[in-house]
Every structure is written in C-alpha cells, then in structure tokens.
Amino acid sequence: TYSRALEIHKQHLSPMVTAYFQKPLLLYQGHMEWLFDSEGNRYLDFFSGIVTVSVGHCHPKVNMVAQKQLNRLWHTSSVFFHPPMHEYAEKLSALLPEPLKVIFLVNSGSEANDLAMLMARAHSNNTDIISFRGAYHGCSPYILGLTNVGTFKMELPSGMGCQSTMCPDVFHGPWGGSHCRDSPVQTIRKCSCAPDCCQAKEQYIEQFQDTLNTSVAKSIAGFFAEPIQGVNGVVQYPKGFLKEAFKLVRERGGVCIADEVQTGFGRLGSHFWGFQTHDVLPDIVTMAKGIGNGFPMAAVVTTPEIAKSLAKRLLHFNTFGGNPVACAIGSVVLEVIKEENLQENSQEVGTYMLLKLAKLRDEFDIVGDVRGKGLMIGIEMVQDKMSRQPLPREEINQIHEDCKDMGLLVGRGGIFSQTFRLVPPMCVTKPEVDFAVEVFRSALIQHIE
Ligand code: PMP
C-alpha cells in the first residue's frame, strides 16, 4: 500500500506541495501527541501537524463534541444563526481584553489576514500595509504580499516583478534577525552571535521608521506582526520593540494587527495571547491553526468601531465561516485548554525543554542558537559558531530524517530551512521531552561522527 500511495500522490497531487521527508510518511492514525504510520510505527509529533493540533490528535472530548454536532446540524452559512456560533463568540470574546469584542469567523489564517487587511484599509482610509521581513501571514495571492519568506513567492514574467505586486502598497520593515539576542535563554548562554546579528532595539526602531517614511505618501493603513515569527524559524524581537512600533504606526493613523495564528491559545505559556507578552493591545487579532485543533476554522477579532467601518462600506460573506461543527469544536478546545491546564503546561514543560535544549547548544558547535517561548522553540543549525553560516540543507535534511526514523517529528523554518522547530501539542509531558531531546541529540552525534 505504501508504494501505491506514493504512486497516486505523484500522479494526482500537486508537486507544488513537497513532501516533508525523503521517505514520506503515510499516516493512518493519531492519538494525543502521537501519530501512527501505515506500518504501525509510532512517532512523537513535535510539530502538531504544523503548529495546529493544540490539545492533542483526536482528543476524546473534542471528538465526542464534534460527533454530537455532526449528528445535529452541519451547515447553515453565516447568514443564519445557530447556538454553537453564539456560544463560541461569547467564549472567545471573554478571552480578549476590551475593546476587542467583535468576531468574524472564517476558515484559514490566510483568509483571516485578508479580511484584517481590508478592515485596516476601510477603517484608516489609508492604503499602505507594513509587515516584517521574514514574516509569514499566508498564501492567498493578496496576503502573499505580506509574506516575506522567498520560497512562497513567484517571479512574474519580466517587468512585472514579484507576485507580491498582486497586493500593492506593501512595505517590509526590519526583521528580528535569525540570531536575535533577546531570547529567554540569553541569561543562561554565552552569546556567540556575530556582531551584526546583535542589533539593539534602537537600531530596529530606526529601520522601522525608515520603512514607514518610505511608504508612499506615508499613508499607513495597517501593520501586521507575528508576536514570534514562526515560519521564519521562531524569531523573536528585542524587548520593547513591538510596543514602540505600534506607537509609530498609530501616530500615522494606521491600525496594528497581531497575527496569533501560531502564538495564540496558550502556546507561549506565560500568556494566552502572544501580543500580551509584548505588553501591547492590537486593534485587530487574527487566529487560526490551534483554534480548532486541526479542524478548519479561523477568526478575526476587532473593536466595534473598526467592525463598523467595514460594515458601512461593504457586505462581506463567507459560506463556511462560523460552521456549526467548527464552532462546537472551537468551544470544546477552549474548555479543554482550561480543564487540562494546558497553558500552564506550555509554560512549565516549555521552559523545561528550552533549558534541556540549551545544553545541546553548549555541547555541539553546529547548534548555533536555541530560542523561543513556551512550547514554541527553535534550534538554529550552523556550520560552526564562529562563521554562523547555515548548515547546508542536505545535512539538515539528514538530521531531520534521522529524527523521524527514531520516532520524532520536528518542523523546519528559516530562510535556509536551517532552524528546527519544536512545537508539540500542549498536552506534551516532561518524559516525552526527555525522549525528544535524546533522539535529537543522537541524530546530532550520528551527524558529526
Ligand atoms: N499566519 C501565520 C503566522 C502562519 O503561520 C500561517 C500558516 N503557516 C498563516 C498565517 C496562514 O494560515 P493558513 O495556512 O491557515 O492560511
């Protein structure tokens, strides 16, 4: 069956989406933090699908609620009301500070950010949108303008530039740099960054101001930021930087958007939302992935004022947004996060994992950096700590494959795909972290031998 599956995949599924491993995985079953393949092998899932399975694969309580709702009502379209939608809206808004109380339900992170961009322009009456270099906000043609991870972009025929031009008036500000110093592990490590990686907050602010000033007619509509850049390889900003950036954007009449697609729902441990870790209050928050534990759903939350600005100017509709099954799942995911203390677990087990992994950085010259917060951790691989050049892709591929063959699935990120991402379901335990770190260490030893 395995070779037949590969054949079908090759013939009928787009080559645009590449398989994650040289020997791709054919997955049959999932249970909490574990996945099982066609040959009965089990894998500890330290990537949660892609940062999506927040409370565990096929969580029994989530399954039970989903099945109950499937038997009752599947679909209505958002123009009809139904109890799961109202129950969910109340529960979600209770988790956000005033005045973030108005919810739009959609189906994916890209859709959520598309809508947020529209809101920012409708509300500010301005055009320009700012995002960071290295940002990932989605893959729809419109939002691709904000995404700044090169491999997701396409050169159009000569003279037309990059695909980002489909979304005009987007400017990319400075990024957190892949060797950002402001990681919580800084206190327990000797810094080995090259000097140009260690830019202070002031320098970033200066660059950010330059970006705002180059924006055509300085007509800033909105500014998008991930509280920690995920796809770019778990990149953090210097302390206080985002707060200052929000202020500069607001001075120019723009609205600030926190993309919580990866960082929300307790994953960062210390707070429920990533923006809270920066002590900022966004005007719009977008969320997806972990919101439905793998079921397609997403949301945009904003202020009544911004919601009104958009409603005044257009009718917006989404066939599947606010689907009854999605809403029922969204509600039970929030209940499970609370009942099982998963945010606290992210904090405790995440800190434990960060400290354990930091030791690998001291042990191996090819581990250039270990950083992150809660259960969102990046391990950046370099040729050596002096040069800080990324480890060649083939070598990283091999370590990745070896981890998989030893039963551990981890993610990848960064411009050169040089950062391993460890982002397990939030129910992960310390013994599982011990197993993961041991597997990762064995793969590194195998590599240098
Ligand atoms: N924002 C962020 C921060 C993301 O990581 C992603 C997906 N990787 C998206 C938006 C887009 O989400 P989706 O794939 O659901 O469209």
Automatic annotation (TrEMBL):
GO terms for biological process: glyoxylate catabolic process; L-alanine catabolic process, by transamination. It catalyses: N(omega),N('omega)-dimethyl-L-arginine + glyoxylate = 5-(3,3'-dimethylguanidino)-2-oxopentanoate + glycine; N(omega)-methyl-L-arginine + glyoxylate = 5-(3-methylguanidino)-2-oxopentanoate + glycine; (2S)-2-aminobutanoate + glyoxylate = 2-oxobutanoate + glycine; N(omega),N('omega)-dimethyl-L-arginine + pyruvate = 5-(3,3'-dimethylguanidino)-2-oxopentanoate + L-alanine. InterPro entries: Aminotrans_3, Aminotrans_3_PPA_site, PyrdxlP-dep_Trfase, PyrdxlP-dep_Trfase_major, PyrdxlP-dep_Trfase_small. Keywords: Acetylation, Aminotransferase, Mitochondrion, Pyridoxal phosphate, Transferase, Transit peptide. Signal peptide: none annotated. It is found in: Mitochondrion. PROSITE patterns: AA_TRANSFER_CLASS_3. It holds the Pfam family Aminotran_3. Its cofactor is pyridoxal 5'-phosphate. The keyword Mitochondrion applies. Its EC number is 2.6.1.18, 2.6.1.40, 2.6.1.44. Transmembrane segments: none annotated. GO terms for molecular function: (R)-3-amino-2-methylpropionate-pyruvate transaminase activity; alanine-glyoxylate transaminase activity; beta-alanine:pyruvate transaminase activity; pyridoxal phosphate binding. Belongs to the class-III pyridoxal-phosphate-dependent aminotransferase family. Homotetramer. PANTHER family: ALANINE--GLYOXYLATE AMINOTRANSFERASE 2, MITOCHONDRIAL (PTHR45688:SF3), PTHR45688. This is Alanine--glyoxylate aminotransferase 2, mitochondrial. It comes from Castor canadensis. The gene is Agxt2.
